[in-house]
Write a structure and sequence with these properties.
The chain is of the alpha+beta class. It is 37% helix and 22% strand. It has a 5-stranded mixed sheet. It has a 4-stranded antiparallel sheet with strand order 1-3-7-5.
Length: 276
């Protein structure tokens, strides 16, 4: 039987509307066990796009990968911190060397200025590869923020063997360690024994000998620092001045009172004799 154009148009509209309704209400086919059927596998082209997007960093991160990414970032940061040099707490002058006047058979002196450049109290101490022939004054101290001290280093200079040029060759080295402390306190070597992990090697200083018969800026600077260190040591030896009222005149008052009493007693004796 022939179908008119209107009927064909109506049936086509009904099919299209019904198809849309069917697509909205269509449920996934269920297998015999009641579980939904597996989704069809993706095509190789879509899979390739997925991997290429992930390779260039445009793929959205998966929620489950947050912990792994955080752990990897933490391990990278810890490695980076271990590779970075430690922040210095002290400023040294000279920065890398200790200058000594070359006088064989004598004990000579060197000096180094140490300043605390951090915002907290810092303890420091000396170490040397030749403890039998070297010692430091002071061997360590606690510096307040911005405080400066000039340390003196003593060394016995031995005579060279086999005409060795000791001015250019010396294996003795010094090490300066620093340690952050909570506040002002008395220095004690046990501070570094108790907190070995927190101690930082500030500098390793090489020993350089200077010719005392020549003129050099290093020798002149050394003499100035040694004079400054001696002046500071003498200032520390002096007793602290008292801030309260002075009692210098008290002795004078007592002596004057004694003189008046003696004159009074003498006058009383004269009066007694006259009355008799």
């Amino acid at each position: 039987m022939a179908i008119s154009g209107e009927e064909r148009h109506a049936s086509a509209g009904a099919d299209s509307g019904g198809g849309k309704l069917w697509n909205l209400c269509r449920m996934p086919f269920r297998q015999a066990g009641g579980a939904p059927a597996a989704a069809p596998p993706q095509s190789s082209s879509s899979s390739g796009i997925h991997h290429s997007a992930g390779r260039y960093g445009h793929e959205a991160p998966v929620a489950g990968d947050g912990g792994a990414q955080g752990a990897s970032a933490g391990s990278i940061s810890s490695v980076a911190k271990s590779l970075l040099p430690a922040r210095r707490r002290l400023r040294l002058d000279p920065a890398n060397k200790l200058y000594f006047p070359y006088e064989p058979g004598k004990q000579v002196k060197s000096a180094i200025r140490i300043k605390n450049t951090s915002k907290s109290h810092v303890a420091f101490k000396f170490q040397t590869t030749a403890p039998k022939s070297c010692f430091m004054r002071p061997p360590g101290a606690v510096l307040a923020p911005g405080e400066t001290i000039i340390a003196t280093v003593f060394k016995f200079v031995e005579h060279p063997e086999n005409n060795e040029n000791i001015l250019q060759k010396c294996k003795v080295k010094f090490k300066i360690l620093s340690l952050k402390v909570k506040g002002p306190m008395e220095y004690a070597p046990e501070l570094f024994d108790e907190q070995k992990d927190q101690a930082v090697v500030e500098k390793i200083l090489k020993v350089v000998f200077l010719d005392v018969n020549g003129q050099s800026p290093q020798l002149e600077k050394l003499n100035n620092q040694l004079a400054e260190a001696e002046a500071a040591l003498e200032a520390r030896k002096k007793p602290p001045e008292e801030n309260g009222p002075k009692i210098v005149g008290e002795g004078l008052v007592i002596d004057e009172w004694k003189e008046r009493r003696e004159r009074y007693l003498a006058q009383q004796q004269v009066e007694v004799v006259d009355s008799v």
